Amino acid sequence: MSNADTAIAQAHTAAQEQKANKAAASKARARRFAETVQRKDVAPVITVEAVKALIPTDAQMAAIARSFAIDEVDADEIFGAGYNAVMDEIKVLEPALVVSIDGEKNFRALEMHMQRIVGARVASAYGQAQFYETKRQAARELSSAHANDSRDEDRMGIDGLANRAAFAREFAAQLGMKAYALAALAEGAAKAYAEYFGTEWKPYAKGNARSLNQQAAAAQIDALGF
Q1: H-type helices in the chain, by residue range?
Q2: Confidence (pTM)
C-alpha cells in the first residue's frame, strides 16, 4: 500500500472513530437528560403538610425546650410575621400587577408571583425539616448504640460514644427548634395567600401550570371576543 493509500485509510479510520465518539457522547447526553427529567418527575411535592409531618409537634417542642434548656420560640409571633410579610407585599404589588381587562380585574400576575414567594418559604422550611429528621435519626442510632453497650471494657472514654450521642441529641434538638420556627413562618405565609386569593396555596406543579395557563388563555380569548 502506497503512502497516499495509507494516509487515506488512517484518515478514514480517524473519521469513523470521531463519528463513533460523537454518537456515544450524544447518547450519554440524552441519557443524562432523561435521568434528570425522571428525577424531577419523582421529586416530592413540597407542601405545608409535608413540612409539619417532619417537625416536632407543639407538645414535643415544649418537651425539647425543657429537656435541653433551649428557649422556646414564639410560634404565634413567627406565624404572624409570615402572614404580615405576604400581606404587605401583596398590598405593595397590587397596583403594579393587577390589571383590568374589559372592566374585570385580572389577578393572575400577582397570584403567580405570590405563589412563588410562599413556595420559597415552604421550601426553606421543608429543607430545614429534612435536615432535622436526618440528624434526629442519627442521634437515635448513636444513643441506642451507647445504651446497648453494657460491657465496661468496650466503653469509650470521656470523649467517646456517650459524649457523641449527647452532642448529637443536642444538635438535633436545636435543629428541631429551627424547623419548627420556619414551619410557623411558612404556615403564616400560606394563610395570607389563602385569605387574599380565596384559594389554598398549592406548590407549583406541571398540571397546575397547564390548568392555570388554559384559564388565562380562555380569559384573554373571551376579552378579545374571539
Answers
A1: 3-42, 48-54, 58-68, 75-97, 108-148, 161-197, 206-224
A2: 0.69
